[in-house]
Specification:
MLTG-like; Dna Ligase, domain 1; about 50% helix; EC 4.2.2.29; single chain; mainly alpha; 3 domains; two-stranded antiparallel sheet; about 350 residues; lyase activity
């Protein structure tokens, strides 16, 4: 009789424990949701692009410095029913932020936004100067060398020229310029990969890096939409037959701060890695940040026999297949002779 009673008591206790588990679990969850998250830095920043999954967002917060379980954070997003409402944007959390307030910030798009416009055709030096002028953007990279900065964004050993996509970037007030640079770098990788995948068959370019370099030259040579593919066609033809590209923007880029606005014959005759008059082929790196249109022009140049072009003075160019025709065009459009 006593043994049966004891067994019944144990069974009842077990059932009671099973019934209480969800209650205990809910209590722990409520405690965790209201508890401040431990942060690895005074400010933890994350940029969320459109299409990022809730699991990836949770992982990104933990990698950025929110010291919690990424799975726990993801389960909270999912359990809340708000995961699909998380908005793309740049977010920063400060000490005192809880899992509740973190999710609420992303769902409500709780950002004080500023914007910085990075313009096509600008050099890396000009890019950095534009970021330094951006309103209420924390200048964390100001004292970094180019090599240190590229390492900080996860691209060690890569030359920064041409590697950041020109666009208008919105950011939360007070986030670091490093966050904007990471977004611009990732965006250029995506755009370059998309352009390279769409390249025309039989092209002269062998790698995406060559395409990026040629696109930067096209970007500097013309801002006219209708001429981009033709300019790329001329340079592709020259590369194919081994002619020097003879593009002034690359020489100007090589001069750097020494360029005073006047390109002289001595500059064209002074050899250097970016002098495409004295050296055949592409320069060693891009010379500017190309936009999407120039990337596509580089990989899908217009079919043309032209080997030369000259500016008409109205933003357009005159294209020629022979040197004689080109010289006549130069006389007409550059020297004012019939």
């Amino acid at each position: 009789m006593s043994r049966r009673g004891s067994g019944s008591g144990r069974w009842q206790a077990a059932v009671l424990s099973l019934l209480l588990l969800p209650v205990i679990g809910v209590g722990i969850a409520l405690w965790w949701l209201g508890r401040p998250l431990e942060l690895a830095a005074p400010t933890v920043e994350v940029s969320i692009e459109a299409g990022t999954t809730p699991r990836q967002i949770a992982d990104a917060w933990v990698r950025a410095g929110v010291n919690t379980s990424p799975r726990l954070l993801y389960e909270w997003f999912r359990w809340s029913g708000e995961a699909r409402r998380i908005r793309a944007g740049s977010y920063a959390v400060l000490p005192g932020a809880t899992p509740r307030t973190l999710l609420s910030k992303m769902v409500e798009g709780d950002e004080q936004l500023e914007t910085v416009r990075l313009i096509e055709g600008r050099s890396w030096r000009e890019f950095r100067a534009e970021l330094a002028r951006a309103p209420r953007l924390k200048p964390t990279t100001a004292a970094m060398s180019d090599a240190e900065l590229m390492t900080a964004i996860g691209a060690p050993g890569i030359n920064p020229e041409g590697r950041f996509f020109p666009d208008t970037y919105a950011y939360s007030v007070g986030v670091s310029d490093l966050l904007v640079l990471k977004r611009a770098y990732t965006k250029m990788q995506q755009e370059l990969a998309a352009a390279w995948a769409a390249r025309a068959p039989g092209g002269v370019l062998k790698t995406p890096e060559q395409a990026l370099t040629l696109a930067s030259i096209v970007e500097k040579e013309t801002g006219r939409e209708a001429d981009r593919a033709l300019v790329a066609g001329v340079f592709s033809n020259r590369l194919r037959v081994g002619m020097p590209l003879q593009t002034d923007p690359s020489v100007i880029y090589g001069l750097g701060a020494r360029f005073d606005g006047n390109l002289r014959r001595v500059h064209l005759e002074s050899d250097g890695p970016y002098n495409t008059y004295t050296r055949p082929g592409l320069p060693p790196t891009p010379i500017a940040m190309p936009g999407r249109a120039s990337l596509l022009a580089a990989v899908k140049p217009a079919p043309t026999q032209a080997l030369y072009f000259v500016a008409r003075g109205d933003g357009s160019s005159q294209f020629s297949s022979t040197l004689a025709d080109h010289n006549r065009a130069v006389n007409q459009y550059q020297r004012g002779r019939p």
